[in-house]
Amino acid sequence: MSKKSPDAAPQTGELLCEDIRTSSTPSTIARAIVENLQYVKGRTPAHATTNDWYVALAHTVRDRLLQHWIATVTARRRQPKIVAYLSAEFLPGPHLGNALLCLGITRQVEEAVALLNLDLSTLLDHEQEPGLGNGGLGRLAACFLDSLATLQIPAIGYGIRYEFGIFDQEISDGWQKEITDKWLATGNPWEISRPEIAYYVHFGGRTETYADEEGRPRVRWIPGQAVKGVAYDTPIPGYRRSVVDLLRLWKSEAVESFDFQAFNVGDYYGAVHEKIASETITKILYPNDDPAIGKRLRLTQQYFFVSCSLRDVMRIHELQGNPLSTFSEGFAVQLNDTHPSIAVAELMRIFVDERRMDWDEAWTITQKTFSYTNHTLLSEALETWPLPLFRELLPRHLEIIFEINRRFLDGLRSRGMGDNEQLRRLSLIDEAGDKAVRMAHLATVGSHAVNGVAALHTELLKETVLREVQAWQVKRNRLESLNRDRLDREEFLHYQLREIVEVNPQAGEDDALADERKILANVQRLSDLAARAHTMLYDGDGAILEKMQAVTEDIREIRRIDHRLEISEEEIAAHYYQLEEAAFTLRDYTQHLSFDPGRMEAIDDRMERLGRLKRKHGGSLESVLRKRTEMETELRQMLSMDEELKTNQEALAAALSVLAAKADELSRSRKASAVKLQNEIDKQIHTLRMPGARFEVVFNDYSPDAQGDRYRETGMDDVRFHLSTNPGEALKPLNRVASGGELSRIVLAMKKVLAGTGFAGTIVFDEVDSGIGGATAEIVGEKIREVAAHHQVLCITHLPQIACFADSHYRVSKQVKAGKTATAVDVLSDHERLEEMARMLGGIDVTETTRQHAREMLNITSRGQSS
User: Fold this and answer.
1) Could you report the per-residue pLDDT of 489-511, keeping only the tens digit for each?
2) What are phi and psi of 823, to 5 degrees?
3) Which bin fits 774, alpha (ψ -120 to 50), beta or left (φ > 0)?
4) pLDDT tens digits, residue range 2-61?
5) How far is the C-alpha of 133 from the C-alpha of 145, rounded, in Å?
6) For the chain, which end, N or C, has fewer CB atoms within 10 Å of the first or last residue's CB respectively?
7) In 240-272, which positions are buried (b, 16+ CB within 10 angstroms) versus exposed (e)?
8) What pTM was computed for the model?
9) CA distance between the termini of the chain
10) From CA 800, how far away is CA 588, in angstroms rounded?
11) Are strands 792-796 and 762-766 parallel, antiparallel or unpaired?
């Protein structure tokens, strides 16, 4: 970074005395940057590197965020509820640019760094983006935190402080390489280490039963290992809002980082073994979970951050003086996907084992506390953990999950909901094959609300079955909502309405009472003023009325002598009588004024009762009366709810009848089309060098769900594609038996069969050449060309036997420009296409022989196209 003249940087004492940590003027910001450079980095402007200037600027901006954070924490004490967002990933993006945008000080900071002869864009580009996630899950979590802060909702995001994040990429010798993402290599100026906020997390060991002081059976977990989780905080600002929320990440450390005894006997590795093992937990984002040790580390990571987070939430709740019985009223805990779903069992363990809470009370609070966001509906993508691994790592939690599952299934059976097959699918334990804990099931059962993030419906379903399903679900949900909490709502309305009726406020009453109270409070002063005015007008020496009478007589005498004086005696007399009437009124007013302490007390009591109503119902007497009308109307509607229930039940039955008819019609149509489809696909795959293969469409009816519903958004059929690749082999699900090359050819066969049906305007073939070559590749190329007669086709391939059938040839390559990787797509000319085909045939070195071979291939396919 160029620094034209470091000596030109503003120095301490040169600027006005503004708050250097909070001011947003460019000159003060520049001064703050220089001070942070000197006192945080220990550098002078003349010797500062780009990283030094970036860290100084980051601390300067962070100071302004922390000003809002302190204000948010202070206000949070008055908030009824705080959101705790648990996610294994967060992708917040670069902090500096986001903070400047949210604080609205981008221009001021740009001017400030210019005063220091620096370039803001260079400093922005220097920042290492936090590598705390690898895709949509982490970005969604970060966006939620941004949105919560912008909506001024107090929230804390909880996750893991991965030392190494998602991999970086570099191009070496024309090839993409994945390298370690060392995003913390130069430090992170945005985070604040909180060593005083740390929790011990336990693993392994065994459990034992015992009786407590009251003779009740209890379970004690005797763990075999412990690590310490330390908090690191990052402020999350809202867009142009004063609220700053918090991202709290946990780093794992050893309980005892150095074993002096092992060191003294020469076991130098053993002296630091516990430190290395403990810190491995938060070392890397998403370790490979194919081997057993990878699975163990993934589950360890999930429980580690969940345990720290729940203990922290509980600490904050109790720090505010709240009992555990109100835990769900103080915090709403959102589980982002299945990674933090072990939180359900952990919170139950803390409540039941550590806090001696009754199971039913603990389960009620747990369900009211958690909500769960599901990120996939594909059963094979939902997270499960093998029982042996779970038992070894978290033995007490597995026992709690077994008990949750037993009570859940018993509850379904007692309500007559589901047969054995359905209960097997609903169980928290997958009993098929190697038994496993279903984490999505655990999160769903342990939460009071579940939501998704993806729309999976096709246009066909939206136009047919989905319309009826939605209509049916709307009516069913309406029916359930009419029954839900009706008595509680009715009792609440009666209670609030009774308060208003007992007071019986009248429109404008509060203003009238305020006026009357003001008079009573000033009776003596009003009496004195009225008496003095009456005396001045009527009774005192030289009273105004007496003088006016003398004035009238003098004017009358003047006019008797000189008629030119134009003063009307009648007008003077009229004013005289008006003042005389005012004097009599003041006399009567004084006589009726009196202070009544009983009346004053009654007014104060009445105004206090009216004030309580106004504070509860909108702030004014008009809003109280409006609320009374609304509650009376709602209660009348509740009285007529039985009739509405009957109407909705009839509508639900009618919608179900329509749905059943439509689903049956769709099923018959599907089965008729399936016969044609499998015959045509069989023909196509035989021509693709799979002569002994058989393809079949298999239909299974959906079993009734927990509500007894047999219909899904896809109809009443569970449709699967089955394949047998060799004669004599049984048909099995396509995704389990087909190799990569076979799967590519089957997909191609499907698209060839469906070509011309209008099912898609553009078709993309990616990795269609996987596992094939030679003559098979040539056949695949011909099939793709046939599909291209009806659709636009984009094909990504490395095989010249396929590429030669294309009408146009594009080359996709990655290039490094200015230190960044970019993807380039180039349209090849005829000559370039020939060269690229030759390279695909012969490798890096292109010879005249490979060119001739490429030319022949292109000529043959060109003749085929023209014919």
Assistant:
1) 777 888 888 889 988 999 998 89
2) -100, 130
3) left
4) 444 434 444 434 333 458 888 889 999 999 999 999 999 999 999 999 999 999 999 999
5) 15
6) C
7) ebebbbbbbbbbbbbeeeebeebeeeeeeeebb
8) 0.55
9) 63
10) 116
11) parallel
Q: What percent of the chain stands above pLDDT 90?
A: 33
Q: Over the Cα atoms of the chain, what is R_g?
A: 41
Q: What is the rounded CA–CA span in Å between residue 92 and residue 102?
A: 13
Neighbouring residues of 616: CB distance < 8 A, sequence distance ≥ 6: 496, 499
CA distance 347 to 353: 10
Question: pLDDT by residue (tens digit) across 88-135?
Answer: 999 998 999 999 999 999 999 999 999 999 999 999 999 988 888 877
Q: Take residue 735 and report the two structure tokens written for it.
A: 């995704």
- Strand pairing category for 694-701 and 717-724: antiparallel
Distance CA 461, CA 715 (A): 8
Q: Determine the length of the chain.
A: 867
- When pLDDT is averaged across residues 223-234 and rounded to a whole number, the result is 94
How many Cβ atoms are within 10 Å of 410's Cβ, its own excluded? 10
Angle, alpha carbons 768-770-774 (nearest 5°): 95
**How far is the CA of 192 from the CAs of 8, 82, 692, in angstroms?**
32, 21, 65
C-alpha triplet 709, 715, 719: angle, nearest 5°: 115
Q: Sign of the CA dihedral 729, 735, 736, 741?
A: positive
Token pair listed for 230: 């330390």
Helix (H, G, I), strand (E, B) or coil at 208: strand
| Phi and psi, residue 363, nearest 5° | -70, -40
| Token duo for residue 393 | 């790592």
> ∠92-62-112 over CA atoms, to 5°?
110
